[in-house]
């Protein structure tokens, strides 16, 4: 099973690297396909190497998860989206850092991260996507110099769609919890009749 996951992660990473020029022509596929594809490749690679068996202590897991969140924020900035298209060293940094600092780090730390921090980061991700959607759809000038204004508007609507999809996905477990059945061992013992 691990070999299959390893092969899948290598195939996904290789596809992202090989087809990066095609994906980078359009900001929607660049930001919403290439970057998540690299992160998923890193996550699968870490899983195939046994990341689920490593259990970092909560403070370390929290720090690693915050590192991953800052890495995501860094690569979402328009300046670095542009730089990755024009500077080979920045593009190489993108291809290396996203699988490691986002995908592999989240595979290692997410389950051990404090639930409050996980909830905070999910809420922050939704608000960030909403702000980016507004910014890209309402900016009167080009934010990314490598793309047209019409391209950045489509990216803004893509951010909005992703924010709505994630909010539904993350809210569904609240309405349909996995532990909805009451276990008989959890019930309080009844008092004996006098």
Overview of the molecule:
It is a single chain. The chain is an all-alpha fold and 194 residues long. It is built from eight helices and no strands. Helix 4 runs antiparallel to helix 6 (88-109). It is globular and about 45 Å long. The chain starts with a helix and ends in a 19-residue tail after the last helix. The model has no long low-confidence stretch (mean pLDDT 87).
Which structural class is indicated by helix and strand composition?
mainly alpha
- Treating each run of at least 4 consecutive H or I residues as one helix, how many helices? 8
Classify the oligomer. Answer: single chain
Low-confidence segments, given as residue ranges, are none
Major pleated sheet: none
Rg over CA atoms: 21 Å
Which word captures the global form? globular
H/E topology pattern: HHHHHHHH
Average pLDDT, to the nearest integer? 87
How many structural domains does the protein architecture include? Answer: 1
Short description:
The protein has eight helices and no strands.
Can you lay out the helices and strands and say which pair or pack?
Layout: H1 2-18, H2 20-23, H3 27-48, H4 58-76, H5 78-86, H6 88-109, H7 115-138, H8 149-175
Helix pairs in contact: 1-3, 3-6, 3-8, 4-6, 5-6, 7-8
């Amino acid at each position: 099973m691990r070999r299959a996951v390893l092969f899948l992660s290598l195939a996904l990473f290789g596809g992202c690297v090989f087809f990066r020029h095609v994906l980078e022509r359009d900001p929607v596929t660049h930001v919403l396909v290439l970057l998540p594809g690299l992160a998923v490749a890193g996550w699968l690679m870490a899983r195939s190497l046994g990341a689920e068996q490593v259990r970092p202590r909560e403070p370390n897991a929290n720090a690693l998860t915050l590192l991953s969140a800052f890495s995501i924020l860094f690569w979402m900035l328009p300046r670095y989206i542009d730089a990755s298209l024009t500077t080979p060293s920045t593009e190489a940094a993108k291809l290396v850092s996203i699988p490691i600092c986002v995908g592999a780090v989240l595979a290692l730390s997410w389950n051990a991260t404090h639930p409050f921090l996980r909830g905070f980061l999910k809420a922050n991700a939704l608000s960030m996507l909403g702000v980016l959607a507004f910014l890209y759809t309402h900016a009167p000038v080009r934010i990314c110099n490598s793309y047209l204004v019409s391209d950045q508007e489509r990216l803004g609507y893509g951010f909005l769609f992703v924010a709505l999809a994630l909010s539904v996905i993350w809210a569904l477990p609240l309405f349909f919890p996995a532990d909805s059945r009451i276990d008989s061992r959890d019930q309080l013992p009844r008092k004996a009749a006098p």
